[in-house]
Write a structure and sequence with these properties.
Layout (H helix, E strand, L loop, with lengths): L25 E2 L3 H16 L5 H18 L10 H9 L15 H13 L6 H12 L2 H12 L8 H20 L22 E6 L9 E5 L5 E3 L14 E4 L8 E6 L4 E7 L8 H7 L1 H9 L3 E2 L4 H4 L3
Length: 310
Amino acid sequence: MRQGEVASKGAWAGNPQGGVKAPAPLLLPDPATRFARTAARLESLAHLHPMADWLRFMARLAQAQHAAAIMPPPTETPDQARVDQAVTARMPPLAADDHARTKAWRNGLATLLDRLAQNPMPATASSVIAQLRARDENAVEALADNFLHGGLGVADAGAAMYVAAALQVYFTRLAASLHAPGLRLLPQRGLCPCCGSTPVAGVITASGPAPGTRYLYCSLCGTAWNHVRAVCITCGGSRSVSLEGIEGDTGAARAETCNECHTYAKMLYQAKDMQVDPFADDLATLALDVLVGEAGWSRHAANPLVLVGT
């Protein structure tokens, strides 16, 4: 099942939320389009953007991710018995901080770095990549473990961005191989039902069978899942949730703030721009993060590629 396809009715418990009719609870990613779409959107957003050069570099990174994502399928597939066991226990079947990775992710990293090297890049980036290539397998695996467990040191920040990008490819391919009708949303609705990671942003749909549905997009594996609107995705509160934005912009990106837990999460509205992409638009709207951060709210969870630097 690929992104945009709907799980069979009857496979899910719960009532439709926000007045929309039967929204699909979960959409698995499509590795063939996930990163290519982000790259194209970043290129489009870079035009006349004050951070144009950085956005174009991130577009090239997304293009390199796409090259890794469409490599011949890896021999690794999730163990169905373990998947079923995790789903029954209401746990993510591909729990990122506990998954036994194979070397397939490092193969993806090598492809990603090779693709980046085909084009000119800033001297700092070239130096960081050269140092990353010089690390042995154990050191690279340790870097991946530190990233997934939130234990990165400042010295590793630059190299970890490329590791994070490769892990996004790896977990996106794994998530795409799952059987969607057999999956369930987690009790912690703010976490990805496939890998347990936090969302990078939410998208409010304007088309399809259930317009007005909110989907949160996993920052690691790209899975999207339905989450009731006007409810804080951090604490579940609804009494003091509001939207903040930058005056005079298109209105496509808003920060949903909560005064109960003092956090915010970024929401994107297709009704304002049908081309929004949660991964690209989050990077292009860092000014919104600065605005709400200065006003006293903390972000629900960081974008992995921004968390570790560039």
